[in-house]
Amino acid sequence: MASEDELNLLVIVMDVNPIWWGQQAQREPEFTLSKCLDAVMVMGNSHMAMTTTNRLAVIASHFQDSHFLYPCKNWTGGDGAWDGTMDETPNCGDGKYELLSVANNVVAEEMKRVMSTTEMKGNSTDTLLAGSLAKALCYIHRMTKELEAGQEMKSRILVIKTAEDCARQYMNFMNVIFAAQKQNILIDACVLDSDSGLLQQACDITGGLYLKIPQKIALAQYLLWVFLPDLEQRPQLVLPPPVHVDYRAACFCHRNLIEIGYVCSVCLSIFCNFSPICTTCETAFKIQLPQMMKSKKKKLKQSI
Amino acid sequence: MASLSEEVLLVLKKVRQRKQDGTLYLMAERIAWGPEGKDRFTVSHLYSDIRCQKISPDGKAKIQLQLVLHTGESSTFHFSNDSSALTDREAAKDLLQQLLPKFKKKANKELEEKNRMLQEDPVLFQLYKDLVVSQVISAEEFWANRMSTTNTENTLSDKKQDVGISAAFLADIRPQTDGCNGLRYNLTPDIIESIFRTYPAVQQKYGENVPHNLTEKEFWTRFFQSHYFHRDRISTGALDIFSECAKQDEQGLKLMVVQGVKNPLVNLLSLEDKTIEEGYGFSAAASTSNPNRTGKENSNSAIIKRFNHHSAMILAAGSGRGDAPNDPASETSSTDGNSRDSDLSQPPIKKVKLQEAIDYLDLQREDGPKTVALNLKKSDRYAHGPVPLESQKYTTSQDIINSITCIRHEMANYVPNLAQVLTSSAVSSAIAALSPGGVLMQTGSQQAIDQMVPSEVQGELKHLYIAAGELLRHFWTCFPVNSPFLEEKVVKMRSNLERFQMTKLRPFQEKVQRQYLSANITGHLEEMLQTAYNKLHAWQTRRMMRKI
């Protein structure tokens, strides 16, 4: 049983790469970024409605930057604290719990602002996922430090991923994963389009769930069913089994996945064939190849 | 049947066995009996087979000797020589008494060893039951490997200790009064050796004086008369050849004192009882069984405790008054002497100990680890890491611009509509996919094998693995096959493996399949056996090819 004082923080990292979503809008008009945002809001509301001590944060991951949708700097209240000096009452008119309606409004506003300021500078079209995860970790860390004495907080990160992996973010990604593992922060992943090896590793290492959903229009249902329960409740539910992760490394020369290879002891780069000089750090190596034994004719011992 | 090279120790005629007259022969390694008139033995027993001998009581008319073997059988010999039956039997009995113990130990020791090993190691016992009792391999093969490991242990305990000198050896030479005012001392060679080991000076004098000046008897008479032997060693008169011994002893003692203490800073608090080896007043088993101490041990320890307490009380009484005068004396003695001299005269170990006590490793300056900077020529590899290359989707810049404008347009008109997020058909198909048996739940439906199979079956499987492992080890150690012995062994092991498969593995497999379907827990065992068969087959075909 979770104690009264235990806080649960859910950070949702949404991949809002406009290029992918723009193409998606042309491919499947029934599931667009608006629908995805609605589903995420439903998930966030449900999480906050479970217990009063649950907290939420939403980060939008763009190819320009990572942006906090909720809580956001422009809103003076912070998370949960109600500052009564807001100009407009956030009253939806349907008697909703005010925190939820505030959250929804903030998310919508911020998203509109992010999208309206999107510009294509440079030629990087990859989502800055590693950076968003790092921001999420920092936020969790800050929240943990701001707790009162005696309060405990459990945190997890839910990543909703659309575009493909960016290989250039590998090192940062792995660092983020190991930092999360050290801090006992779960990373769950809900993948809409193509499987992501990095996220599979992240979920495997931190103990979270990885799910690639077959139908995007039922995204909200998948989120509520699989990702809403927190760590203590998951063993009591029948959830999708963990995915088999392919941990094979790719060699640095051909970028093929290999099972057995040669590793440079100086820079730890992996090669599929032995070469006397490591191409990454230019260290010279000598290797003793196994000697070819001349087969000797064995004479059977003669018994007397 | 007697081999010509056997040495016959005793021949006794007119010994009846099973109502037949005959002759009893005792040889170096066996005892045998042959009937009268024939020159072969009908009864022959090795001494190592004989457990014990029994004789008929003295009063009985029949004079018999019975030999009981280890197997439980017994042979009775009736000495029917009228004149010398009793002496014959006594002679046979004495000879057997001398010979049997020599052979007894060898046989018993091996059996005892085997029994002990089986009792100590339950895994070994189980393996023995599985393999030998069910006749998969014979007992000799089973023990062939084990004994080599135990023999090395036994040789360590065979080293004999030197016999020491009893502390009371001088007191044991109890003089007997010789009638009129004389004393008779009984000296055995043991006592003489003890005296020489304790008093080397006496040995020296003995060497000098006997047999030139004095006879042995006179030497010892003088020894016992001398004051050296008696308690008060006041050396009067130079007539006593032993007066110099006393002076020699004193010089020896002075030498030992001058050598001094090797380590004056020895830590008395951390001293423990240490013994040289088992047998030097110490036995490992006795120390663990404290509640089982005998009465005698208890009374000994009680006396020792009283002595210790008494000594502690004496020390306590002396320490109160003795401290005050002692301290100024010690201070003056240290300041009187030259400090440099005292330093040099202290043994070096003391200096080392003092140095150790005042040095703290943490307070010393740290030498940081020497590092070498990593110099990468292709540092972008560091960025992407060992990630396989994935085909990039190329998007034209026109596509990009289109997508962005589309999204911007969409988001500008975005209003959250949380009441229309899901349709019931989408939801129901999603729930179906997530329920057990659904699209996403396929791999999780297999139950772990260890939950399906009960623990007794798992235990049996473990025993099977141990037994199979043992047999396979014997099999694989035969390769490479170098000698005819190994060839035979290999073939024999193969038949052993097949027998194991038939008698143990198949029934187990069938039982498991009958009760717990689709659990293939013996697959790996079968695979291992099959590999062994394949190897043997390959080796045999290669041999055929070579011979052709």
If you had to describe this structure to a student in words, what would you say it looks like?
The complex is a heterodimer of chains A (304) and B (548). Chain A is an alpha/beta fold and 304 residues long. Helices cover 32% and strands 16% of the residues of chain A. Chain A has seven helices and ten strands. Chain A has helices spanning 18-27, 33-50, 98-116, 129-145, 170-182, 197-206, 219-227; strands at residues 6-15, 54-61, 66-70, 152-161, 186-191, 210-212, 249-250, 257-258, 262-263, 270-271. In chain A, the strands form three sheets. A six-stranded mixed sheet of chain A has the order 3-2-1-4-5-6, sandwiched between helices. In chain A, strand 9 and strand 10 form a beta hairpin. Chain A starts with 5 loop residues before the first strand and ends in a 33-residue tail after the last strand. The relative contact order of chain A is 0.12. The model of chain A is unreliable at 76-87 (pLDDT under 50). With 548 residues, chain B is an alpha+beta fold. In chain B, the strands form two sheets. A seven-stranded antiparallel sheet of chain B has the order 4-3-2-1-7-6-5, with helices on one face. In chain B, helix 5 (189-198) crosses helix 6 (200-209), helix 17 (455-477) packs parallel to helix 19 (523-547) and helix 18 packs antiparallel against helix 19 (523-547). Chains A and B meet through helix 1, helix 2, helix 3, helix 5 and helix 7 of A and helix 13, helix 14 and helix 15 of B.
